[in-house]
Amino acid sequence: MPRTLTIPFLALLLALTGLTTGCDHFVDPSCGCTPPPLPTFTATQLTQTSTWWLQEIRTSTQTVKGNDIKDRFSLSFQTDGSYTQTLLSDETHYQGTWMLMGTRNSTLHTVDHKGDTQEYTLQGANPEVLYYSRLDKNGQATNYTFTAKQ
Asked: Is residue 86 part of a domain?
């Protein structure tokens, strides 16, 4: 392997090793180290991408990706607090409202077209990827991963 590729590869390997062996406040909060601060979210992070496509649903027992997701949908968040959910199978559109709430604006509160409310915990948002989760009826986390429409 040429030296120019070896150094970045080793740096990446060391960084990944540090991630897996360092203090992980999500796994062990009593590790004695100071975890990095949790992110604060803004409405702009949701509206910066015109459409978010659902790419993965992960639970403790299963991961479903892409076209294998039953009732797969996309989301478009507007700056006026409205959103559109579109079923990808038949392009059916549903309108609702949304807002960020709670500590760090990490709670995505939605009201769907039927008037039902849902709350999701934002995990991350950047121009390419949106992550959020919620607890199912058994108290287990369900994680949703969206990517920006290409």
From this structure: yes
